[in-house]
Write a structure and sequence with these properties.
The chain is an alpha/beta fold and about 290 residues long. It has 2 domains: about 160 residues, 3-Layer(aba) Sandwich (D-Maltodextrin-Binding Protein, domain 2), CATH 3.40.190.10; about 100 residues, Periplasmic binding protein-like II (D-Maltodextrin-Binding Protein, domain 2, 3-Layer(aba) Sandwich), CATH 3.40.190. The chain contains 11 helices and 13 strands. The strands form 3 sheets. The chain has a 6-stranded mixed beta sheet with strand order 2-1-3-12-4-13, sandwiched between helices. Helix 3 links the parallel strand 1 and strand 2. The N and C termini lie far apart (about 70 Å).
Length: about 290
């Protein structure tokens, strides 16, 4: 090789080393953090809501972050337990099941909606229906969500039992894929009633839904980290999530996740004890979870 060729080879090598030393190149080389989500809404809606958060966390952590939507609630729990995702967003009942099955995990942040750490479930009917009380649903068609869902199955199931209605007394019941499908099923007349969390009810109330019964308050959704994630990473993620309420950009991200979301706050495992009691009562009544 000529001297000129050697010179250019060395120059190219030096240029590549320089490029790889740039922050963006280091960012690209790092293994991504995976944020896992349970399918409580359609995939399109979940990508729309969570993609800005993924981008924000990537910038704050200087590590690429990718979004993974599980095929089911059970698949989501398995992915967390097997450490196939680094960050997980999940509902309160799946969180309780997660701790029972795999033990405690690092808690990052929990939803605060309209200044409250809790949320409610709603049993809905169409606005034109004549139903005024839960016992009137005997012999009718009911739409639940995923069997592991807090507000589209477990809590409303307890509400039905409290009023003397077992699912065996319904004309039929089905488990639909998400809260939106429940709302649409009731609006379309495929079901006389269904169950969903309060913010989805409020979204579809103007289209013709009416609340038949509202649950008590339960702790809201939360973000957790996988076991084994470095402590510095856990701390950085928690700091980034809790800081969202402190900037205009952050508050836009919060309302993009859910219109009523006012902050992400520090959760405590003990916050979920009242839900554990409800789930224990359901188990005692022979209801599989």
């Amino acid at each position: 090789m000529s001297r000129l060729g050697v010179f250019f080879s060395k120059a190219i090598c030096l240029f590549l080393v320089f490029c790889l030393s740039l922050p963006g190149a280091a960012f690209a080389q790092q293994a991504p953090l995976i944020l896992g989500i349970h399918p409580f809404l359609s995939s399109t809606e979940l990508y729309k809501r969570f993609s800005p958060l993924v981008e924000y966390l990537g910038k704050q952590m200087n590590v690429p972050v990718t979004l993974k939507i599980a095929s089911s609630y059970d698949a989501h729990l398995e992915a967390i337990g097997k450490q196939e995702v680094d960050i997980a967003f999940l509902g309160p009942a799946p969180y309780v099941k997660l701790t029972e099955r795999f033990g405690k995990v690092p808690l990052l942040a929990a939803y605060e909606t309209n200044g409250s750490r809790t949320f409610r479930g709603v049993i809905v009917v169409s606005r034109e229906s004549q139903f005024t009380a839960i016992p009137q649903l005997q012999g009718k068609r009911f739409a639940f969500g995923d069997p592991n869902s807090t507000m589209s199955h477990l809590v409303p199931r307890a509400m039905l039992l409290e009023k003397g209605v077992d699912v065996k007394q319904l004309a039929k019941y089905e488990f639909l894929t998400n809260h939106e499908n429940i709302a649409l099923g009731v609006l379309a007349g495929n079901f006389e009633a269904g169950a969903m969390k309060d913010d989805i009810f409020k979204q579809y109330e103007p289209q013709g839904l009416r609340a038949l019964a509202i649950s008590g308050s339960y702790p809201d959704h939360l973000f957790v980290a996988r076991l084994g994630l470095p402590a510095a990473t856990v701390h950085g993620l928690q700091k980034a999530l809790l800081a969202l309420k402190d900037s205009d950009e952050g508050r836009r991200l919060l309302t993009g996740l859910q219109k009523s979301l006012t902050a992400l706050v520090l959760p405590r495992d003990a916050d979920y004890d009242n839900l554990r009691s409800t789930m224990a009562a359901l188990a005692k009544a022979g209801i599989a979870q």
